[in-house]
Amino acid sequence: MDTRRINRISEEVKKIVSELLTMEVKDPRISPMISVTKVEVTKDLSYANIYVSVLGDQKAKDDTLEGLESAKGFIRKEIGNRIDLRYTPEPIFYLDESIERGIYMSKLIDKVKKEDEEKRRNSNE
């Protein structure tokens, strides 16, 4: 299948799932601080690998994944209603911690810069 079509479908699924998570899914286990970072639809359109980022502790992340698993049927039905496809891909949710890793790396870089500036000031004095 054409990769451009797969990419367009992936982006459309991402948009729909993001909208569903913020507006329509009412499960209290799903954290309000959730974002869909990436969606990869398989070439045969049978599965949609959905990567979500959750801001919070490990318990919030685990609870959110449980809530997403229980809402999987509703999410698949809504994807099918909003996208005209012969087969609706089954959503599979994964936790994406790349944003948190990026924040952690940014903090480390800032810390090293600060220490380097202090060393340079101390050596000039």
Write the layout of secondary structure elements.
Layout: H1 3-24, E1 34-41, E2 47-54, H2 58-70, H3 72-82, E3 90-95, H4 98-124
Parallel strand pairs: 2-3
Antiparallel strand pairs: 1-2
Helix pairs in contact: 1-3
Structure summary:
By secondary structure, the protein is an alpha+beta fold. It has helices at residues 3-24, 58-70, 72-82, 98-124; strands spanning 34-41, 47-54, 90-95.
State the major sheet.
3 strands, mixed
- Could you tell me the CATH topology label: GMP Synthetase, Chain A, domain 3
- CATH superfamily membership: K homology (KH) domain
Helix content: 55-70%
CA radius of gyration is 20 Å
Distance between the termini: 66 Å
Let me know the number of strands: 3
Helix/strand structural class: alpha+beta
Reading off the top of the CATH hierarchy, the class is best stated as Alpha Beta
Strand order of the largest sheet: 1-2-3
Q: Choose one word for the global shape.
A: elongated
Low-confidence stretches: none
* Total domain count: 1
Protein name: Ribosome-binding factor A
Pfam families: RBFA
Subcellular location: Cytoplasm
Keywords: Cytoplasm, Ribosome biogenesis
